[in-house]
Design brief:
This protein is an alpha+beta fold and 197 residues long. Helix content is 33%, strand content 17%. It is built from four helices and ten strands; from the N terminus they run ααββββαββββαββ. The chain has an eight-stranded mixed beta sheet. Strands 6-7 form a two-stranded antiparallel ribbon. A hairpin with a 7-residue loop joins β9 and β10. The longest helix is centred in the first third of the chain and has 46 residues. About 6% of the residues have low confidence.
Length: 197
């Protein structure tokens, strides 16, 4: 076999390999894009599970870090989670989004109108008196609320002073009473039964 023929066979084989590698890369890339789309759709569906369909259908869907998964048209924002370790979806009106931004920055919110948030999938354990407590110590009023609606009002310290802050009273109650983050908790379903160890 002469050198020219060998060279041509080698070049042909290399070309076939390059085409095969390119096809494989294209297939893998397409699979990754499909996987990313499926993951985004799952996150959108999770966010929409937080509130009533007539609200979530037109809501912006956004990750807690600000990444927009879907634009909205009605002023509401739904999130698939509230942050790392807080994998509970919620839907907020504009007033509640302002409240959340103040809370995240540990600044006192100053709502000038009523705000509403839906958490149909429940919430993480929370110290009902201390908004920034992260350790459950004996005797503290921790609550793991089930499906609920949250409401903020202007002048909360005055408006909510006569409302109970007992999460076990069987009625709507105040969370974070006597703090700038006071808001009304309205349970709309049962709390999850604690798992036995």
């Amino acid at each position: 076999m002469n050198a020219i023929l060998v060279r041509r066979l080698v070049m042909k084989r290399t070309s076939v390999q390059m085409i095969a590698f390119s096809c494989a890369a294209l297939v893998l890339s397409s699979a990754a894009l499909a996987s990313d789309k499926d993951a985004a759709e799952a996150r959108i569906a999770r966010a929409m599970s937080a509130g009533p369909a007539q609200i979530t259908a037109g809501a912006k869907i956004m990750e807690h870090d600000g990444t927009v998964l879907r634009e909205g048209s009605n002023g509401w924002t739904c999130m698939p989670s509230m942050g790392p370790g807080m994998d509970f979806p919620m839907c907020n009106d504009p007033a509640w989004m302002e409240f959340m931004q103040a809370f995240a920055a540990r600044k006192a919110p100053n709502p000038t109108r009523v705000g509403v948030s839906y958490m149909f999938a429940g919430d993480a354990p929370v110290n009902n008196d201390d908004p920034f407590d992260t350790t459950q110590d004996p005797g503290e009023p921790w609550v793991t609320e089930g499906p609920h609606v949250m409401v903020i009002v202007p002048n909360a310290e005055t408006m909510l002073k006569d409302m109970t802050n007992d999460p076990n009273a069987g009625v709507p109650y105040v969370m974070f009473k006597n703090t700038p983050y006071a808001h009304i908790m309205i349970p709309i379903g049962p709390r999850a039964t604690p798992k036995e160890k």
